[in-house]
Design brief:
Length: 399
């Protein structure tokens, strides 16, 4: 068997159901790679509706061929999001609520990125735009569902897949649908990338806020009337210094003025300037305080006006009892094939923040293992795919 040396568990694990299931995925590793490549080669930047709709239709056909009933949620301004329902067994004894598999097919890469960043394999790593975040996660869904159908003839329980079109830009068109589906679910499994190369699942995520501070000053000719101007840029600079004092890393609070704009020409005292700010919070309790501080900024120069807009978009995913119980289950399944599955708390937000924020048990980071999300060197580790698929299949069965 190729790769026998690198994957000891495939040959040395006891002859249990889990060892059989692991072998099943191990033998299909190349097929999983092929599926991931198919998805990576369909570029799908969040802000290009036609492109995102293209991958939505491709995936709709894939899930339909597995017997799922497919529904595209139309959006005018964003790509369409894809819901797929699998009925599962009708036996009354297993009349269970669906498990929700959550993910997104939009990426941060503009059309054409593929030309300079092709889908390719090097040293056991699969590279390409969106390969880790999170096209490998979608491929894992397809292969886990297919496997469960083969093992049980039909799915052992109802499963809903929801793939959104706009996660990388705040999930504004899909959020209410995600929340509605989560409400009906026994639990939510999020196929975002694992944390780090050890493949930890994510049991806590920070909350995320997006704010914009706009400053209006008074324009004047910088040469003829310098004293008459009130510079929006100068005011903004002072505001940014003040805002950055809100950073409190030991408490998990961070504030990043990431984009600034302002002014028209060097010889004009700037009438307008603005900054876009990314805010991260560790606990829901911190949201109101941070929001109040940001929205109550007063101008240093009385002739300037400052106006803050935006807010906390995703509340933190906190490690509630429900989240911890899902992690415990996942660790047990991993343990069946001699794998010590770790957990991690991370700074990035996902749609799992929405569902966890509603109190629905949510486990995130079940997708591919790799590095470089949103960067040119984005990759997944190919040899990790079989056990990730095994874990997902096990979780679908037992949540
Ligand atoms: Zn993602």
């Amino acid at each position: 068997m190729p790769g026998k040396k690198t994957r000891k568990t495939a040959v040395s694990a006891p002859q249990t159901k889990w060892a059989d299931h692991f072998r099943y995925f191990f033998e299909r590793q190349d097929r999983m790679v092929k599926t991931i490549c198919e998805l990576v080669r369909i570029e799908s930047p969040s802000d290009n509706k036609a492109a995102v709709d293209g991958i939505a239709r491709f995936l709709a056909a894939k899930f339909e061929s597995l017997g799922g009933s497919v529904r595209l949620h139309h959006s005018n301004n964003f790509g369409d999001s894809l819901q797929v329902d699998f009925g599962g067994t009708r036996e009354p004894s297993t009349n269970r609520r669906p498990v929700l598999l959550l993910g997104h097919y939009d990426t941060v890469y503009p059309l054409g990125t593929l030309a300079g960043m092709p889908c390719r394999i090097e040293n056991g790593r699969l590279f390409g735009p969106g390969v880790l975040d999170m096209k490998s996660g979608i491929a894992l869904m397809l292969h886990a569902i297919e496997a469960l159908q083969e093992w049980h003839r039909e799915l052992p329980r109802p499963v809903t897949v929801f793939l959104v079109s706009d996660e990388e830009i705040g999930s504004h068109s899909s959020r209410t649908i995600t929340e509605g589906l989560a409400k009906q679910a026994a639990g939510v499994l999020v196929l975002e990338p694992a944390a780090g190369l050890r493949g930890a699942v994510k049991t806590a995520r920070k909350g995320v806020g997006e704010y914009t501070l706009r400053v209006k000053g008074v324009a004047a000719h910088a040469g003829l009337d310098p004293g008459k101007g009130h510079s929006a840029i100068l005011e903004l600079a002072q505001q940014i210094a003040k805002i950055s004092k809100l950073n409190n890393l030991p408490q998990g609070l961070s504030v990043n003025p990431g984009v600034i704009r302002g002014g028209t020409r060097t010889n004009v005292v700037a009438a307008e300037a603005s900054v876009e700010i990314d805010v991260r919070i560790r606990s829901a309790k911190q949201a109101a305080g941070m929001d109040r501080k940001l929205c109550s900024l007063k101008p240093f120069d009385k002739r300037c006006r400052v106006e803050m807009s935006g807010g906390i978009n995703r509340l933190p995913m906190e490690r509630t009892a429900g989240v911890a119980a899902l992690y415990k289950k996942a660790r047990e399944i991993a343990g069946e094939v001699g794998w010590k599955l770790e957990e991690a708390a991370v700074g990035g937000g996902s749609d799992g923040n929405f569902t966890a924020g509603m109190g629905i048990p949510t486990l995130d980071g079940l997708g591919g293992v790799g590095d470089g999300a949103h960067a040119m060197h984005e990759f997944v580790v190919i040899s990790e795919l079989p056990r990730r698929a095994l874990l997902l299949a096990g979780m679908i069965e037992s949540v």
